[in-house]
């Protein structure tokens, strides 16, 4: 929840929150005061990630989102393999980048 209460970010496995969420994994979403739901865990083409995304942490003003994901489609710098990596998303530009990588970490 942003500090002004205008934005809520959450994780869900539901596939019926937005059109095109067909990846079969947990995804991250944003809801604003208008009730509009937006898929956040997506690649540069707007497609859901190829794996799940988890534990969204929104900054106080609602412009940055920290989360982790096993997806390999959010950042071209992601190493190959199925590892859990930490991403930082700019919610203004809708771009994500890796900020930390980890070795393959089964969960």
Any overview of this molecule?
The mean pLDDT is 87. The strands form two sheets. A four-stranded antiparallel sheet has the order 4-5-6-7, with no helix packed on it. The chain has a three-stranded antiparallel sheet with strand order 1-2-3, with no helix packed on it. The protein has no helices and seven strands. It is 0% helix and 36% strand. The protein is mostly beta strands and 107 residues long. The radius of gyration is 13 Å and the shape is globular.
Q: In brief, what are we looking at here?
A:
With 107 residues, the chain is an all-beta fold. It is 0% helix and 36% strand.
Gyration radius (Cα, Å) is: 13 Å
N-C termini distance: 26 Å
Q: How many runs of DSSP E, i.e. beta strands?
A: 7
Give the rounded overall mean pLDDT: 87
Approximate strand percentage: 35-45%
Major sheet strand order = 4-5-6-7
Which structural class fits the helix and strand makeup? mainly beta
| Helix count, DSSP H or I runs of 4 or more residues | 0
The biggest sheet amounts to:
4 strands, antiparallel
Low-confidence stretches: none
The shape, in one word, is globular
* Element order: H for helix, E for strand: EEEEEEE
The helix fraction, in percent, is under 10%
List the helices and strands and how they pair.
Layout: E1 7-12, E2 27-32, E3 37-39, E4 53-58, E5 64-69, E6 85-90, E7 95-100
Antiparallel strand pairs: 1-2, 2-3, 4-5, 5-6, 6-7
């Amino acid at each position: 929840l942003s500090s002004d209460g205008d934005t809520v970010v959450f994780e869900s496995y539901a596939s019926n929150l937005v059109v095109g969420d067909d990846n079969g994994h947990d995804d991250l979403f944003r809801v604003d005061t208008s009730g509009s739901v937006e898929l956040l865990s997506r690649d540069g083409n707007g497609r859901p990630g190829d794996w799940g995304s988890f534990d969204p942490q929104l900054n106080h003003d609602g412009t940055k989102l920290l989360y982790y994901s096993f997806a390999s489609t959010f950042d071209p710098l992601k190493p190959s393999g199925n590892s859990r990596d930490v991403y930082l998303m700019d919610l203004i530009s809708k771009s994500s980048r890796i900020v930390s990588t980890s070795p393959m970490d089964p969960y």
